Amino acid sequence: MTSATTPVNPATPTGSTPTLPRVSIQGAVKKFGDTTVLDGIDLQVKAGEVAVLIGPSGAGKSTLLRCINGLERLTAGSVDIDGVRLEYRESSLNRMREHVGMVFQSFNLFPHLTALENITMAQISVSKRSKVEARDRAATLLARVGLADKAGSYPSALSGGQQQRVAIARALAMTPKLMLFDEPTSALDPELVGEVLQVMRELADEGMTMVVVTHEMRFARQVADHVVLLADGGIVEEGPPEKVLDAPESARARTFLNQIA
Ligand code: ADP
Ligand code: MG
């Protein structure tokens, strides 16, 4: 029975905004051969939330991020973004990637393109923006990450922190509604970490939905709405930072937090 007065789904009454999570991961299993790397992960991230993923090396943090944007294919389970199920057809993947930006540990800029060109390229090829529009947008984003004067610089002439800020601007150029960060500061010299975290903090303040893998506990404390501790392919503990980081319930969590302290 479907009419204007009888909503199909009573949880989302006609005329009101549905409160679908931005990201909903259900029963995510990922195996590489016989090795189970993700063993049934359930995770939801609401629009405007920052979720920080922590956990020991090999826990499956990168794999989970890569499953969210379809770089890896789940063995079982599902990922929905704003209620749209991620499927592994090219058309579905392309549509999803227009809305999901990713920033990697290694900045992955094109070495033969300037900072500005790195930011314009996908806008022209994927988003079909005009050259002028793409360049305008790139210039605005470079200014936003504090690099207005580096538009013409090649990556080799930029510090690691500057390259990573260009990589963030490049991801933002697609107007994503979700940003994934995989240890964005762990390849940086310590004195360059702050400038990248600052850009991320500003993004969070502006309401960007973010899933961030990081070992920067101060950032997690200040910025995360939600901290998820992953170990051995499962969620060991999750909740607000003051709970997970300062009053963890499990021995596994305490051991990990002591190691990184
Ligand atoms: P983390 O990011 O938490 O350090 P990863 O997600 O990178 O962990 O890796 C989790 C486990 O999955 C590791 O044991 C790793 O060796 C394995 N793994 C990751 N990617 C692949 C792959 N493409 N093929 C086989 N094994 C993989
Ligand atoms: Mg990793």
From TrEMBL:
Enzyme class at the top of the EC tree: translocase
Residues annotated as domain ABC transporter: 23-257
Pfam (any one): ABC_tran
InterPro entries linked: AAA+_ATPase, ABC_ATPase_HisP-typ, ABC_transporter-like_ATP-bd, ABC_transporter-like_CS, MetN_ABC_transporter-like, P-loop_NTPase
A molecular function GO annotation: ATPase-coupled polar amino acid-transporter activity
Known EC number: 7.4.2.1
Catalytic function, reaction form: a polar amino acid(out) + ATP + H2O = a polar amino acid(in) + ADP + phosphate + H(+)
Compositionally biased intervals (Polar residues): 1-19
Keywords of the record: ATP-binding, Nucleotide-binding, Transport
UniProt region (Disordered), positions on chain: 1-20
Family that this chain belongs to: Belongs to the ABC transporter superfamily.
Record protein name field: ABC-type polar-amino-acid transporter
